Give the backbone structure.
Amino acid sequence: MSGGARQIPAFHREKALVLFSGGQDSTTSLAWALARFAEVETIGFDYGQRHRVELDCRIAVSDRLRREFPDWGARLRTDHLIDCCVLGRISDTALTREAAISFGASGLPNTFVPGRNIVFFALAAALGYRRGIRHLVGGMCETDFSGYPDCRDDTLKALQATLSLGMDHRFVIHTPLMWRDKAATWELAWELGNEALVELIRNETHSCYLGDRGHSHQWGHGCGVCPACELRRAGWEAFTARRRCGPVDRSPAP
Ligand code: ZN
């Protein structure tokens, strides 16, 4: 592994399947899985998202992970890109059609794609069932409140039980970012892969709701004003301020 990263033993002899979108959270979760599982496969979804740049970012991220982290690259196996365009056709959201980002009467932003994570995990479980994988990993988080009910811990625990019962196959849903804010997510990347991984995530992952890769900032690429960019910027600034101000907790990531 490059960058002088501390090697965390792969304590699992098992395989994991990571929901990998090409964003900061799913890339950090992918690194978390690569540090733990013997083999890691990835699954991504083409659901007719307005800005398909994140699908390109998936390829750039996995290419650099293989090149710059050879130990992880040896464990990073098949990528599965699933056609999920029916979600875009039945949804009416700012991620699947041209619309300004706003909050609806429900209090949820119109970037919420109803059922998205539930459908994604159901498809991941179906694929995992066929490929003998029971560990499913996702970058969902309810700490930086997005308002998305399908990112909540209770939703995903219920989904784990539903999928396990419904397929009569024990699934474990791992969400390593669930209780971390965005600054702590950057810190986890540092713990897993030091500066090399932080730089990879900063340069190659995509968060911006507007699909903007033309503007470069200290925290990465994006429009700089949409809620996703704002969250990413604030997290980066808190992370870099903490690193400047004092001893960093070097305890192993959970
Ligand atoms: Zn943006």
In short: Residues 208-210, 212, 222-223, 226, 228-229 surround zinc ion (CB under 6 Å). The two ends are 20 Å apart (CA to CA). The CA atoms of residues 2 and 68 lie 6 Å apart. The mean pLDDT is 87.
